[in-house]
Predict the structure.
Amino acid sequence: MRMSRRFKILVFLACLLPLASLGWKGKNGLLGANPIEIITHSTGDCALIFLLITLALTPLRKLTGQLWLIRFRRMFALFAFFYVVLHFFRISGWTSFLTSLKC
């Protein structure tokens, strides 16, 4: 059980890597000439990738007989939702609204 918990934490951190990469690129000015387009495409791509991983886990579990794969389905689904929300915030203009606020 302890190994499963460590592996879940490792998978959780790996799922945050695309967001960390975007943050690092944004901080260092490496997003290119049109950073909004890069952010929009990156979050959309991540959402699709995590959705496909989520949908592929059940058939993969049935084919391989590895029951432990199903434990990660919810985590991948939540990360798919997380990246979809980030993508829609970018598409809907919420980021423009939030950056215009002076804190």
User: Anything to note?
Assistant: The first helix runs from residue 2 to 15. The chain is about 80% helix and 0% strand.
